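User: My advisor asked me to double-check a structure prediction for Beta-lactamase class A catalytic domain-containing protein before group meeting. I don't want to rely on an old file, so could you generate it fresh from this sequence?
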Amino acid sequence: MNVKQRNHRLRGGGTLIMGGLLGLMSLIGSANTPAKAASVVTPLPPNAYYAVQDGQLADLTATGMTAAHPLDRTTPTTWTATAQTDVPTATGQTNRYLYISSAQDGVQGWTAATNLRAGRTYQTTAPQAVKARNYVVVKSFKAAPVPTRKVYRLVGQRRAMHWQARASLQRDKTYRVTQRRTYYQAGKAYTYLRVTSGKTTGWVWQADLKRGTAYNVAHHQAAIKTKLQKYLNSVTKDGTAAVAFYNLTPVKGSRAAKAPHAAVYRQGKLAVNARGNHVTTSASTYKLYIAAYLMHLKQRHRFSWTHANRAGMTRMIVKSANDYPVSVLQRHGRTSINHWVTSQGYYGHPFSATRASRTTANSLVRVLKDLQLGQQAFTNQQDRAFILSLMKRQVYRRGIPTGVARADKGTVVRDKVGFLNDNNGDAGIVTLPNGQRYILAVLTWGRGQHGFSGYPRIARIAEHVQKIVY
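Assistant: Sure, here is a fresh prediction for Beta-lactamase class A catalytic domain-containing protein from the sequence you gave:
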């Protein structure tokens, strides 16, 4: 029954049917006695309301009111008011009632005006196209009474919408915005943006996003590793080289540590090697194992920094002299030292009385990592500082130090070289001027190398590694 039909039934020759109003008063509990005067039902232009408190929804008939159901049992929605009536009470006052219909399911009836507040709810405007732009998730979400922090699907017609969550917002994703629309809830307007990110599409509250493009740390790490791996594969494919790379966290407080995307360089996240486990002649790089073993003995109170030991360590590292490490091997035995080296996770059995010492590029990176991080045998800070100072002073600088200086002037290298017959190797800890740090081990052989002829090759490899990663 429409409003005009209801008004016609309520008016008989211009006189309002009192029985209907008395029934209405009885239903809503306005008074316990009949009103002294009847009020008139007045048509209204359609106005939007939403329920703010519990109340009764009722039907008005010519003979009285019949209850429909309580408002709080209806689906939250916008109600459209199209008529009003003022019902007198026994005390001479009046209560206003509105005739309303639900946008959600078309339910109609009368309810007290005090149960409603002007405004729309659970409704949206039509989507409007906007210039396509990239957005990212805000650093901190705001509290709101509307759906937030997720990508939603809107279901239904604009006059009666509801939400379905599709996916949580991800801080490492870029959301492409192409549309916007207004959503109303409890009389307030909220802007929602239509987003696309990969296979995810839907609507997001505008306050959850800001302009920008996400920097995907994992994606950039993977890209760097892929490029570096391809390069290392190319320089080792002929079987005459092995290379291992391990990135360290930047120096605390440095420009690199404070850079916007410093997380890309989290320790070990860019580690790559090519033929890293290939066993080859170590030449004098084995002296890193001797230094580690002596620091192990010092932990056991079986070694101390006598003048002779300090001088011997200095000759061994700075000038790569052999007398001191050979004396250590003879004094403690190759079998015992091999056993300890293996227990540390380094290359097992590097030392033999019948062949040259052996190693792998990965094993050299491991021992340098322990030295840099103060792990295993290198827990004493003063001992570490002494050994690293010797490595910074070592005199053979044509390999890694030369290459990385060409990549970035001012780069500092603490390294240990090895050269024997056609074997040239270099393993070091590299620190860039901006505070970035990494460990690199390059072992080469063959190709008619002799003396130091392989070091220009090592320098080229080191230069390109640094340019690729940093």
